[in-house]
Amino acid sequence: MSFMRAFLLSMLILFLARPAYAYIDPGTGTMIIQAIVAVIVAGGIFWRRILYFLKKLINKGKKRT
């Protein structure tokens, strides 16, 4: 899908949207922040495991004297 098509579709959806008349609880913001922090921490742990595995793999290929 081209950029122009996506833009036009987004604008069409935006202008045809009806008001929701919904209430967002104050605790919702805290829940969103917790989810973002959890994703960042989990990503860091996963990235650290990948780096550890690669280091182990590289050191295994080297000859030890």
What features would you describe in this structure?
The protein is mostly helical and 65 residues long. The chain is built from two helices and no strands. It has helices spanning 3-16, 26-61. 0% of the residues are buried.
List keywords for this structure.
mainly alpha, single chain
Entry summary:
The chain is built from 2 helices and no strands. It has 65 residues and is mainly alpha-helical. The protein has a domain at 25-65.
Architecture blueprint of SSEs:
Elements: H1 3-16, H2 26-61
Question: Judging from the principal axes of the Cα atoms, what is the shape?
Answer: elongated
Quantity of strands, as a count:
0
Approximate strand percentage: under 5%
Backbone CA Rg: 23 Å
- Summing up helix and strand content along with how strands pair, one would put the structural category as mainly alpha
Give me the strand/helix succession: HH
Tell me about the largest β-sheet.
none
Tell me, rounded to a whole number, the average pLDDT. Answer: 85
First-last Cα distance: 57 Å
